[in-house]
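dumping this here so i dont lose it
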């Protein structure tokens, strides 16, 4: 977690966008192609449309053109930041996608602000930002291989109905509405939180009507019609993909940043996660900041992050409307490069603020503790919560 404070502001912003694109790409990665009919499919109940999508055959490979939209940051928010040369990940861009069910995938995004490459396989996610000549690498968790026969079975209609009933307790689902996306007959669904989700308004998903192919994923802020983030397929074709299309070699002089380094075992060598207020408070070498409530939300959990010198995670509230605190000893995270973010007064402390359409992140030190406060809330609410820490 110290990584966020060591990254320069442009790299911090790029990393946030890159992870969102990569997550969306993992869903788009099951694509197959149809003829470009441009027709809309017949109306279907949601459970039936989902069953048809989930039982679709896996394609041998996919080549597609995609468009990435990024309205996450307010207009002009990046212009005054030191060293912000821009990237397709922070400004949006268009490009291509290649995917193989056996070898992984690659997205190439291009824009006037700078190009980016996102590659993934079963073990690793790699993000190369050419504008800063930086490569970010993240090891992916190993998949469970036991009982693979049952795992490969698609859910039944009854399973889907049970899932939708549970979902209805947490979200409002609109659709599926017949549409045409990238010239293909498609269904659209909009999922909106039924309870407080902060600034997050809805998640939109469009998929191919015949093969269950995701064609668009979009996240919208509350009250906004334009997406804050979206990955849209504009053209697709079905065929085996060459291994050369899935490989890009960054320059030898590129800076490499390792994300999600393996956690250190907790003291005692049990390998178990340390949780609970008293246990974490006793394990960390600083005074843990964890009031009973924060911003009107009750404390839900406290967890040690990777070992005593890595810090602690404290969560308040539930779901997307909650607040997260990440804490470690002040000065233990190396050079702090979040200072290029706007400065805000937080009572006795001075912090730096990253405000986006979907939430706010604050970085500040208080009483020998370095704190990152994040939540899907406007800046004023995040600042008030930070001041409430005393």
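and the seq i came up w/
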């Amino acid at each position: 977690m110290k990584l966020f404070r060591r990254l320069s502001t442009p790299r911090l912003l790029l990393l946030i966008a890159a992870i969102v694109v990569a997550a969306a790409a993992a869903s788009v990665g099951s694509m197959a192609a149809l003829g470009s009919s441009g027709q809309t499919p017949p109306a279907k109940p949601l459970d039936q449309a989902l069953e048809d999508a989930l039982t679709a055959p896996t394609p041998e490979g996919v080549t597609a053109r995609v468009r990435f939209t990024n309205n996450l940051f307010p207009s002009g928010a990046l212009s005054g930041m030191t060293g912000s040369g821009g990237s397709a990940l922070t400004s949006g861009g268009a490009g291509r996608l290649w995917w193989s069910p056996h070898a992984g995938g690659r997205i190439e995004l291009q824009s006037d602000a700078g190009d980016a490459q996102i590659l993934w396989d079963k073990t690793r996610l790699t993000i190369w930002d050419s504008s800063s000549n930086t490569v970010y690498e993240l090891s992916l968790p190993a998949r469970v291989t036991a009982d693979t026969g049952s795992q490969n079975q698609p859910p039944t209609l009854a399973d889907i109905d049970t899932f939708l009933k549970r979902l209805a307790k947490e979200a409002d689902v609109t659709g599926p509405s017949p549409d045409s996306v990238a010239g293909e007959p498609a269904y659209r669904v909009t999922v909106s939180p039924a309870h407080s989700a902060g600034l997050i308004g809805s998640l939109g998903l469009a998929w191919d009507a015949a093969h269950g192919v995701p064609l668009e994923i979009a996240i919208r802020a509350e009250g906004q019609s334009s997406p804050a983030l979206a990955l849209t397929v504009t053209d697709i074709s079905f065929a085996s993909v060459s291994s050369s299309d899935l490989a890009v070699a960054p320059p030898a002089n590129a800076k490499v940043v390792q994300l999600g380094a393996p956690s250190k075992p907790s003291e005692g060598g049990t390998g178990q996660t340390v949780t609970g207020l008293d246990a974490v408070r006793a394990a960390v070498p600083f005074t843990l900041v964890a009031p009973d409530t924060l911003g009107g939300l009750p404390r839900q959990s406290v967890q040690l992050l990777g070992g005593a010198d890595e810090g602690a995670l404290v969560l308040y509230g539930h779901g997307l409307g909650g607040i997260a605190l990440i804490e470690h000893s002040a000065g233990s995270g190396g050079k702090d490069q979040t200072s290029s973010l706007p400065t805000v007064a937080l009572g006795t402390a001075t912090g730096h603020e990253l405000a986006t359409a979907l939430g706010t992140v604050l970085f500040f030190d208080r009483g020998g503790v370095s704190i990152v406060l994040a939540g899907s809330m406007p800046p004023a609410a995040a600042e008030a919560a930070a001041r409430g820490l005393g």
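The mean pLDDT is 79.
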